[in-house]
């Protein structure tokens, strides 16, 4: 679905006549957007032409879910977060635990600062993974970018990734032009991403011109993967079987840094500022954009009355092994950090490492019919 | 050249949406949004921005060359609709090997003028060679229809005529703002509320329908739902759903108006049996009354003498009219000459679920194939005469007789 919010005739109508009907809505945008804010912002646009109606269209078209609080807005370029701060600052505060407009975000991609993480019990921790997103300065974002921009990003990405070597030596597969054999293999490896079907994404205009300019790169070892022009300019993923999160994080940091240097050399560094950290399409991914997680067997702990509380205190969240909104299968859960903004990459992965270690110990106790009451953690 | 490039020229924005002449946007307007939605695209060459249409099979993809794209890419209509807006749906929906989709939409009345270089050939391709210099004739005087009241109800189960209308002064569904859409709804409610007699009816807004009302409308086969077809969604027509969308129908359930679905208005007249004359009478009377009411409020329907009624999809230009019947033709439809007969009669067949559905029990939806270049009366006449002949053929085949001597000439 395209969005089409650059209709100049709308200024002939009052703010009241144009204000969306949000009466059935439950998302961050609908909670925050008042007629006053809308009236103030409706005449503005970013230098590339993104308007407040563009920002909110996805939230207008997708009222939300009674239990899941979606964000309901997107950025079309880096400047959105400044031009529309009256709307986006309160949403960011709401979504990121009270993060204030004056707060500073700390970036730390020094993997050596992570303590431990190489000894999570592989009998319980089946796999480990860290992902993030990056936007490339000088290009507008997926809801807004033109074909020329998107292709420009793809071209830069191909060059940057082609210059990687050693453990990062790999190959790029454009979605347009993949052979059937390549496609089957990427599907079997669980690497292939498909055209977004979620109306949350399509209503924001991210699927335009599919599959033009989109592709997947991965290293020969299949432990480092980059998606080009899906929900963000780049999505970077490091993963492997087993519980060695330290190694996964090392590869993540090293690979990311190498890629960033190459983009910088072409005068297209990653979008970042000291308030919001890494700038991404969805406000929920600001800061680190990082989700570090494991697939871990917790059949007993997950049925314990205190499971949710433990997760909350550890600042972790659970998902099924199919990803967000899926159910767990066989007592195996995807456990990852809940935070994105206001703590660093090292901080967040540390929470995962320490938290998962504790939960595995709890699981083992419960197996032996012992109590875990003495192990309940304090709020982190 | 002056007013047509985005960068460098200074001019004055002219906005007279009710005038008949097209307006081409000039740089430096009073509107705050600038001349192209994503301004960054003008930093790239036309070649870098030209879409990949290598796997595409729709009218737009056949016509849009890189050179044409380059000439049109910096233009926009007074309301800000650009070439990329027009073609987005055709890029996102490559098409079907057997069904030729249009692949482009209009965002306002001026689209057809500002982008005529693209749309004229698309129109010509789609509407049987219709030339830029051709004039379209409008005739909604039901007295001009001959016959049509005696189609055999043992064969003709139901009769229906539909068309679309756009309200001048507002952008079309791919582009309209919420304020505009609500204004179209408000005007429509006022206009329809003043209809009386056989046309006395009620409006049901999609967003505050009760469950009971919704069920009734579904049972009557009147309710339309949020578009799911990617052809429509990719053009932006689903935005803000269900805000300002609704259904009006008369108490007798024979005249129905959809507000703000694929076009500003869709108008439908229908009833069981074969009295197409009565269906067309009601259609013309109702439409004329509605048009008068809109005109009184200074918002006539979009129309010009070249394209007839201006609608969102180029395939619906001219009359926007599809007149059809559900008719039992179990023998005729299996006859080797069926397709040829339809073609000669300028008719098309569909299943009874509408376009792309299969026929059930030998019952077909038979309707006019043309939209532009023929008047409403002419098109309905073709349906009336053609269906009469098809039913005669069916009766002959039932009796084991040949139909060779009643084969029609090409209309």
From TrEMBL, chain A:
Residues 10-97 form the Phosphagen kinase N-terminal domain. SUPFAM superfamilies: Glutamine synthetase/guanido kinase (SSF55931), Guanido kinase N-terminal domain (SSF48034). This is creatine kinase. The keyword Nucleotide-binding applies. It comes from Zoarces viviparus (Viviparous eelpout). One of its GO terms (biological process) is phosphocreatine biosynthetic process. CDD domains: creatine_kinase_like. Pfam families: ATP-gua_Ptrans, ATP-gua_PtransN. The keyword Kinase applies. One of its GO terms (molecular function) is creatine kinase activity. Residues 124-366 form the Phosphagen kinase C-terminal domain. It comes from the Eukaryota.
TrEMBL record, chain B:
PANTHER family: ARGININE OR CREATINE KINASE (PTHR11547), CREATINE KINASE B-TYPE (PTHR11547:SF23). It comes from Zoarces viviparus (Viviparous eelpout). ATP binds at residues 158-162, 221, 266, 322-326, 350-355. This is creatine kinase. Its EC number is 2.7.3.2. The keyword Amino-acid biosynthesis does not apply. InterPro entries: ATP-guanido_PTrfase (IPR000749), ATP-guanido_PTrfase_AS (IPR022415), ATP-guanido_PTrfase_cat (IPR022414), ATP-guanido_PTrfase_N (IPR022413), ATP-guanido_PTrfase_N_sf (IPR036802), Gln_synth/guanido_kin_cat_dom (IPR014746). Residues 155-397 form the Phosphagen kinase C-terminal domain.
